[in-house]
Write a structure and sequence with these properties.
rod-shaped; 2 domains; six-stranded antiparallel beta sheet; about 260 residues; alpha+beta; binds zinc ion
């Protein structure tokens, strides 16, 4: 088989799209031994627009899952550049109006999706991308603006360039007693210990809040603690007691 063959163009696009999501995915164009022994789209053939292989086998392994396989079938069936698809004892083909029918070949196709392209120049030249996995939404961390505007807390989202989502970590033990809390110094309260305040300020900052790590529990810290409590559906008292303290470390980081 010393001919110069190539994979049909539309299948090349599909293969590249699969590898974009699953870089380790195994996609065969020339079939395995069982395919080669009989007439198959996996064998190079001159269809008048080039010597091409017009089928791919997308193997369920190396990161390409059964869910991906099912979604790939869904995304490809009905396309005008595809002739038929076989997966999991089922065949969908253009000739049968893409209706799912039982596939009774000796290979049940449970470990791969077979995709055969139409043998036309138009199909060969089709550049149509395929999505088989939901695109992950990388939510940017919303940093509350620290400067209040005319008394009201400003919460204009300012997306940071590199979305960082720190994983929740186990909270260090709450430094005060179970019925105590850190709060704004109002004269009648004891000045809260700077080191504890600094600890949760630093953690809030890590989570994307624009807060100064200065160990002072002032207006700004109260405002941000209240925002945080609102976001986490905690009692919005602006105090950092054991519950809020724990949430500052352990609650999932969200942008809203
Ligand atoms: Zn195949």
């Amino acid at each position: 088989m010393a001919v110069n063959w190539r994979v049909q163009g539309n299948l090349k696009v599909i293969t590249a799209d699969i590898k974009k999501v699953c870089p380790q995915a195994t996609v065969y164009s020339v079939g395995d031994a069982s395919h080669q022994s009989r007439a198959s789209d996996h064998n190079p053939w001159n269809w008048g627009y080039g010597i091409v292989v017009s089928a791919i086998d997308v193997m369920i392994r190396n990161g390409f899952t059964k869910t991906d396989a099912a979604n790939l079938v869904k995304a490809l069936k009905g396309r005008s550049d595809i002739q038929y698809i076989i997966y999991n004892r089922t065949i969908w083909s253009a000739s049968w109006g893409w209706k799912a029918r039982a596939y009774r070949g000796s290979d049940p196709h449970t470990d791969h999706v077979h995709v055969s392209a139409k043998h036309t120049r138009a199909a060969d030249q089709t550049v149509k991308h395929v999505t088989f996995r939901p695109v992950p939404v990388n939510k940017p961390v919303v940093k509350p603006v620290s400067k209040p505007t005319d008394g009201k807390p400003a919460t204009k989202p300012a997306p940071v360039s590199k979305p960082v989502t720190p994983k929740p970590v186990k909270a260090p033990p709450f430094p005060l007693g179970p019925n105590s809390s850190y709060g704004e110094y109002k004269g009648n309260r004891n000045t809260p210990s700077k080191s504890g305040v600094r600890m949760f300020q630093a953690q809030l900052r890590k989570r994307g809040w624009d807060i100064d790590v200065d160990g002072k529990f002032g207006e700004e810290t109260t405002r941000i603690v209240k925002e945080f409590q609102k976001q986490k559906h905690l009692k919005r008292d602006g105090l950092v007691g054991p519950v809020t303290w724990r949430a500052i470390w352990e609650a999932p980081v969200t942008s809203k």
